[in-house]
């Protein structure tokens, strides 16, 4: 703990310099030296103040799952860490290194909606609308800091474990902007909450956030489903109790996932990689050895849906070695009536939209 605080102290000068750059960027938009562009269809932005790990993609999927029943939905992402550039329509047959792991995950789950990647949000939305004139709403993934577009709603997430009001600017902390940037948002979602969130804890959290009069605060958790086979989703692990598990992840935050799995597994060994890491052939080959070294008559390899898109790059080898890799699905579950109120706010915003 002391070592962590000392490192943070040493990084404070860099955070100050970073903050100056953030402030200049903010000033340019506040004074309208740079004016954001508003499109003729509603844009919903889902982002955060921190770097990764807040659960944006499951919340995007939550919105897609609701909106697709009524509207022609599109999703635009930058496709972080992809090896391609420019505008690309995401298709289920493409690879994660071509379009990014999260956009491919969304497209695989919702093959009938339009998903695209582009470094420039303005260019990306323009391309999507120009090619598909039937689009009625576009969700911008991870776009809170990309202010070139004026969205109809700005939704930001902050985790229960690492809320923005207790964090610091990069690199001493995880914040991309000053804390008070939350005031730009229309909706704040506290994600990855404990299942048994008390009303007292909830109200205390809202008090610390100190929302503006126009802002709504909602609380959500993750609901994990039955693990399914990486290459055959029809094969599911039916028991609520998991065997010995070799957990392989390359996500920004692992604490919430570990807390869910530990009481449900006989043995849990976690192999952690940095967020969006592309597994090498050597790392995949080592999974058999690591699995064999674990105790237990039944053993499986478990990974997340996001990581699964990158494991598909090694499909031939995994099938050849018959590695028992299962994927843990996840979806968002709001607390109490928060889900109803959140979707009602989305609905009313879309109904009253004016281009």
Could you provide a short overview of the structure?
The protein is α/β, with parallel strands linked by helices and 355 residues long. The chain folds into two domains: 2-71 and 136-223 and 334-351, Rossmann fold (3-Layer(aba) Sandwich), CATH 3.40.50; 226-328, 3-Layer(aba) Sandwich (Rossmann fold), CATH 3.40.50. Helices cover 35% and strands 20% of the residues.
Plain-language structure description:
- This protein has 355 residues and is α/β, with parallel strands linked by helices.
- It folds into two domains: 2-71 and 136-223 and 334-351, 3-Layer(aba) Sandwich (Rossmann fold), CATH 3.40.50; 226-328, 3-Layer(aba) Sandwich (Rossmann fold).
- The protein has eleven helices and 14 strands.
- A nine-stranded mixed β-sheet has the order 3-4-2-5-1-6-7-8-14, sandwiched between helices.
- Helix 4 (101-109) crosses helix 9 (305-311).
């Amino acid at each position: 703990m002391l070592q962590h605080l000392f490192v943070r102290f040493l990084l404070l000068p860099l955070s100050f310099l970073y903050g100056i750059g953030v402030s200049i960027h903010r000033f340019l938009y506040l004074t309208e030296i740079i004016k954001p562009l508003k499109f003729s269809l509603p844009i919903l932005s889902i982002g955060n103040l921190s770097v990764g790990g807040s659960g944006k993609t499951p919340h995007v999927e939550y919105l897609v799952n609701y909106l697709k029943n009524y509207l022609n939905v599109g999703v635009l992402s930058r496709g972080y860490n992809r090896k391609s550039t420019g505008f690309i329509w995401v298709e289920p047959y493409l690879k994660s290194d071509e379009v990014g792991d999260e956009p491919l995950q969304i497209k695989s789950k919702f093959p009938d909606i339009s998903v695209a990647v582009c470094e420039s949000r303005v260019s990306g939305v323009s391309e999507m609308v120009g090619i598909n004139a039937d689009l009625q709403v576009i969700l911008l993934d991870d776009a809170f800091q990309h202010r070139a577009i004026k969205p109809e709603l700005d939704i930001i997430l902050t985790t229960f474990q690492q809320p923005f009001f207790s964090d610091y600017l990069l690199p001493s902390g995880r914040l991309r902007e000053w804390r008070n940037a939350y005031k730009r948002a229309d909706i704040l979602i506290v994600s990855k909450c404990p299942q048994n969130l008390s009303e007292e804890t909830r109200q205390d959290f809202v008090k610390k956030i100190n929302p503006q009069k126009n802002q709504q605060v909602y609380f959500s958790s993750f609901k994990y489903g039955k693990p399914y086979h990486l290459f055959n989703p029809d094969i599911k692990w039916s028991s609520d109790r998991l065997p010995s598990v070799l957990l392989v992840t390359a996500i920004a935050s692992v604490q919430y996932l570990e807390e869910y799995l530990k009481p449900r597994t006989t043995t849990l060994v976690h192999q952690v990689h940095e967020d969006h890491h592309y597994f090498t052939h050597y790392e995949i080959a080592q999974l058999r050895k690591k699995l064999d070294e674990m105790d237990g008559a039944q053993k499986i390899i478990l990974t997340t849906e996001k990581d699964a898109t990158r494991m598909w790059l090694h499909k031939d080898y995994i099938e050849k070695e018959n590695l028992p890799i299962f994927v843990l699905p996840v979806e968002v579950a709001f607390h109490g009536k928060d889900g109803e109120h959140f979707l009602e706010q989305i609905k009313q915003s879309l109904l009253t939209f004016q281009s």
